Amino acid sequence: MVQEKVRFQPFSSEPIRLVDEQGRWIAPFEHGLPPEQLRRFYRDMLAARLLDEKLVILIRTGKTSFIAPHAGHEAAQVGIAHALRKGHDWLFPYYRDMGLVLALGVPLVEIFGQTLGNAADPAKARQMPSHPGSKALNVFTVCSAIASHIPPATGAALSMKLRRTGQVAVCTFGDGATSEGDWHAGLNFAAVQQAPAVFVCENNRYAISVNISKQTASENIAIKAQAYGIPGYYVDGLDVLASYFVMQEAIERARAGEGPSLVELVVHRFGAHSSADDDSRYRSREELATERQQDPLPRYQRFLEQQGLWDAQWANELRLEISKALEAALQEALQAGEPDPLEMFDDVYAARPWHLEEQRRLLAEELQS
Ligand SMILES: Cc1ncc(C[n+]2csc(CCOP(=O)(O)OP(=O)(O)O)c2C)c(N)n1
Ligand SMILES: [Mg+2]
């Protein structure tokens, strides 16, 4: 239930922020969250950060071919994950959402199987690394083509409305995606149809090397919602509680039949765009150093300290526990081995056509010889 006091102002000139840089709760209402949940947010942010570090090791040691670092996006992603009804609502993520799918509950072994492209991957290694999905948890598989998942998210939301399933489609993307035609088509149609969708921009102010100043002349991304006749929330995405509460309001609003919204979570991208990018060519190290000072994890740690929910021993044990879980899952995924090449002929047709039967037979013979 959305409490009356947690009604946020759309189109604010300053980002919505509930916890300041010193970790002080600055909202005019009580957060009302139990200690376990407040600590859970920290746990999931730390797990996301440590996963990111592990993925960097996997690319540097040649075990995967592509990563899109999500460090700096953790508060936003954990806030989104906790606002969804897990396994009921649908998530249409993008490639930088590994921390989000982890917080949503996609098992680590699947995440590593997907990263390695081996038999531990439920998608049978048919996707690019960093393109997760989960049938069990209603996570639409990531599509590389920027913004191409936005109209499908709208379509899914419209279907949820027509079938009265009580579900919501949450669709994430970057700032660069907002310049695509698909983005406009998807938001416009969702607004016209009052589809239960929430569109979430993880605005890190870069689309690879293109700075936001070259992306849009609008004062921010959230304000674009005005043109579609839906609320646009401008939010500090380095604040996990602001991300969570605004997302919760937008999702429950959509579920209650009040239509879609656009949520802009302003974040930092601490890494390069991807493993195929050298960001030192277009972004000064001074700029990055300043952003790192605003790291969402220490900021939330300061909040927990002030709530009396922090102690160093707990945090150290947590770090150790997560690191062990990451390593164990990685080892398990590594042992899964290569997928069976013959699987490439499965899952596309209900009945395999003769020419694929023929090719499958030829490959099977080749593999046996
Ligand atoms: C239609 C399309 N155009 C270009 C690309 C190449 N491309 C991949 S990621 C990317 C930048 C996207 O930036 P943004 O939406 O801000 O997300 P971020 O990576 O910053 O999280 C581009 C241009 C693509 N994948 N698809
Ligand atoms: Mg971006």
From TrEMBL:
Instruction: Identify its protein family.
Output: Belongs to the BCKDHA family.
Q: Which domain of life is it from?
A: Bacteria
For whether the record's keyword set contains Phosphoprotein, the answer is no
Q: Fetch the Gene3D superfamilies from UniProt.
A: 3.40.50.970
Under Enzyme Commission nomenclature, its number is 1.2.4.4
Question: What cofactor does its activity depend on?
Answer: thiamine diphosphate
Q: Which organism is it from?
A: Meiothermus taiwanensis WR-220
For this entry, the protein name equals: 2-oxoisovalerate dehydrogenase subunit alpha
Q: Where is the signal peptide?
A: none
Q: Which UniProt keywords apply?
A: Oxidoreductase, Thiamine pyrophosphate
Q: Where is the Dehydrogenase E1 component domain?
A: 43-341
Reaction equation(s) it catalyzes = N(6)-[(R)-lipoyl]-L-lysyl-[protein] + 3-methyl-2-oxobutanoate + H(+) = N(6)-[(R)-S(8)-2-methylpropanoyldihydrolipoyl]-L-lysyl-[protein] + CO2
Q: Which Pfam families match?
A: E1_dh
Question: Briefly, what is this protein's role?
Answer: The branched-chain alpha-keto dehydrogenase complex catalyzes the overall conversion of alpha-keto acids to acyl-CoA and CO(2). It contains multiple copies of three enzymatic components: branched-chain alpha-keto acid decarboxylase (E1), lipoamide acyltransferase (E2) and lipoamide dehydrogenase (E3).
